[in-house]
Amino acid sequence: GGKEGAGAGKKWTLEGSPGQEQLSQPEAALCNASKMTPADYLQAKAALFRASFLSTHLAPESACAIAAAAGLDLPKALKVYELLVANGWIRAAPPPPPL
Questions:
Q1: Would you state the pLDDT for residue 10?
Q2: Which residue blocks in 1-99 are alpha helix, DSSP H?
Q3: Where are the domains of the chain?
Q4: Cβ neighbours of residue 95 under 8 Å, at least 6 residues apart?
Q5: DSSP character at residue 19
Q6: Could you tell me the fold of the domain covering 23-86?
């Protein structure tokens, strides 16, 4: 990304970011730790919710592709997916059957 140069000396913070008030405590912690704006998080969350309504389970690969299409890089997309699964907001795909 080309954003590193602009505020390289300034510490990133979630405080005062538009949409911050819409985040739960775990969501705010994720955004802060990942340096993700609330808008990016909420857009990815909405896309994953839509996808989960169309399917009973959502595999990590599918979720990452959906969140990436919503504008997140893959590591952030995976973190959003993991948070949503951990909170029971979407269902992870069951593991493949043993061979």
A1: 62
A2: 25-34, 38-54, 60-69, 74-86
A3: 23-86
A4: none
A5: T
A6: Arc Repressor Mutant, subunit A (1.10.10)
